[in-house]
Amino acid sequence: MQQLDRGIFFEDSYLGVTIGALVFSQGVIFIDSPLRAEDARSWRSTLTNQRGGANRLLASLDAHPDRTLGTRALECTIIAHQKTAQVFRNRPTIFKGQTAESGAIWETYNDAIGLRWASPDITFTQQMSLFWGGPEIILQYQPGPTSGSIWVNIPEARVVFVGDALQKNQPPFLAQADLDAWLACLEMLKNHFRDYTIICGRGGQVEGNEIHLQLKILKQIRNDMESLVTSNNLPETIHEMIPSILSHYKFPSETRELYTKRLRYGLYQCFARRYRPANALGEPELNDEEQ
After folding, report:
1. d(CA 178, CA 185)
2. At what angle do helices 208-231 and 256-275 cross, to 10 degrees?
3. What is the pLDDT at residue 213?
4. Which of 239, 240, 224 is nearest to 274 (CA)?
């Protein structure tokens, strides 16, 4: 666990996503959850020992299974965007994992199937402020990676948790992406959060060069998709973009297959959502559970 400021922590060692915690006199605000229930219970115990208040909240930065399958084990009230809550309303009570290989981390965890979801208890639409015995905590709507993505912003401490808006040394999840909205939120991050400590959803603390790289890659993806449309090339050729995208990252060789699956699935689904009606490409349309 790494401390960023008084009462502000993040942890990048658990399976799933980078998680955070805000520990103030009113209690703990978790930012996302480890994937495994045993890790979530360990994380909850670790934060309880930080001498905060007795209350617990969880802010879910989006609905991705990697960050939401373990939330039930945290045993607390869950806050999320209204569109994230809608995803949960459309999900079965028990996670069945019925998806193509999407390159998500939960696919490497055999016990993910059969876990029960914990749905959001409190939702908002644009912005929500929390006063937890410390500095103001702002939950702000920042769509792009998904339609319900949010950030956790602590302006006084100059710290922001941006979820899957950024990744470090791994490719993005594209299946639920709105590329234009995503690019807009990254431009805002680059221009208005220059003096902030930025914690991404996968990889921990990032610098400005990661923002520039993400912008570059997403713009290239958008341009290449436009070229496919204007040249009337078959969308199946979209997989040819994968080696170029992966060349921008440094990652262990054993993760190449996982990241290739992530891009193959994500690029195809992103193209379908952006340029074709549902099922027009001959594959089942991705639902919100299977991002």
Report:
1. 11
2. 50
3. 94
4. 224
**Confidence check: pLDDT of 97 > 80:** no
Q: Which residues contact 82 (CB under 8 A, 6 or more apart)?
A: 123, 124, 125, 148
Nearest to 104 by CA among 232, 261, 215, 254: 261
Q: Which residue has the tokens 């696919």?
A: 107
C-beta separation of 163 from 149 below 8 A = yes
Domains, the chain: 2-277 (3.60.15.10)
Q: What is the mean pLDDT of the chain?
A: 89
Residue with tokens 């570059």: 216
Token pair of 31 as six digits: 């930012």
**CA quadruple 170, 174, 180, 181: dihedral positive or negative?**
negative
- Tell whether pTM > 0.85: yes
254's CB contacts (< 8 A; 6+ apart) are none
Report the length, in residues, of the chain: 291
Q: Going by C-beta distance under 8 Å and a sequence separation of 6 or more, which residues neighbour residue 49?
A: none
Q: How far apart are CA 167 and CA 171, in angstroms?
A: 7
Assigned token pair, 32: 């996302």
Give residue 131's pLDDT.
94
